[in-house]
Amino acid sequence: MKIAQIAPLAESCPPRLYGGTERIVSYLTEELVHQGHEVTLFASGDSLTSAELVPGCQTALRLTPSVRDTIPYHMMMLDEVRRRADEFDVLHFHIDLLQFPLFRDIAHRTVTTLHGRLDLPDLKPFYSVFNDLPLVSISDDQRRPMPPVNWAGTVYHGLPRNLLPFSAEAKGGYLAFLGRISPEKRPDRAIEIAAGAGMPLKIAAKVDAADRAYWDEVIEPMIKAHPSIEFIGEINERQKAEFLGNAAALLFPIDWPEPFGLVMIEAMACGTPVIAFRRGSVLEVIDDGVSGFIVDDTHQAVEAVQRIATLDRAKVRHTFEQRFSVERMARDYLSIYRNLAGVRTDAAHLRRRNGENPDLQIVA
Questions:
Q1: From CA 127, how far away is CA 132, in angstroms rounded?
Q2: Hey, how many other C-beta atoms are within 10 angstroms of the C-beta on 6?
Q3: pLDDT number for residue 364
Q4: What are the structural domains, with CATH classification, of the chain?
Q5: Positive or negative, the Cα torsion across 340, 342, 346, 347?
Q6: Which residues on adjacent β-strands are paired with residue 112?
Q7: Which whole-number Å values give the CA distances from 10 to 23, 44, 71, 156, 257, in the listed order?
Q8: What does the pLDDT look like over 80-111, one tens digit per residue?
Q9: 176 - beta bridge partners?
Q10: Under 8 Å CB-to-CB from 307, ≥6 apart: which residues?
Q11: CA atoms of 232 and 323, how far apart (whole Å)
Q12: Is the pTM of this model over 0.90?
């Protein structure tokens, strides 16, 4: 198939540090190329890919201090995608909603994966109007706040099997918190859990400008009050393997409807079990008592830490390989692509018009 992947421009594909959506777009793109598909990636110019790269900006916008508004850059990228739209069998968007008015007439050859939270009040009237465009959720729970829309499927995230190596033992003897310092991620709970369990905690996370006050007023004082808590800051992929692989468990004490939670399967890939609060996608990602423990409060989380040695890290890794590999993710998306109405009816016509031979695999 000839596939366009349209990524956000905030981070490169893959990101240098934090950036879940761009990371998934990168993994999916590389796996589709590996499987023999012709993929064009619309992303920041500093992205690294084996696909054809069409830069929407020179460098990732989060790393460009002069950029104040990201929308103009995304609109310029979308204009280029629209100009080249007839080159592709399917156009796969990962940028939320900016593209909808521009591609409604060819919506049957598009799919949009929604990577964020969908319970925000301004989204319901929008999706009530644009209720015909094919959408993909990254968990079933993510769908709950939405009005009736055209769901094409749910596709859980996946990682390359060789990205994060399996660690048979937790050599570091600490608990880990990885992600972002924000009220909904609840690093304060992670600190309380570690203190209650009498274990060291390492926090590897970024602090966005929007969350600076939360860091200054809540989290930094808690870290200073607990000598066994270590704040590392943002880490890259190489550091992540060691950070997660040496941890006894990953703490995922969220307090919001998490759409997926990529860090959970990153920990699982290392064989590290996850202690997660019963919110959002957690029930769909964690197999309770196998890849981790699902808890309802801090007291239960402390008890789960005491039981973490009863879990087999090899089984945690096996669960990752069975459920959250990039191969499985790519298969799921290819199934969705091939079932899009426009892919089944229009793609061959477009290829003939462009002087190409229709790809019989499109409808296979």
A1: 9
A2: 27
A3: 42
A4: 2-158+325-363 (3.40.50.2000), 174-322 (3.40.50.2000)
A5: negative
A6: 93, 135
A7: 12, 8, 10, 22, 23
A8: 999 999 999 999 999 999 999 999 999 999 99
A9: 202, 250
A10: 293
A11: 30
A12: yes
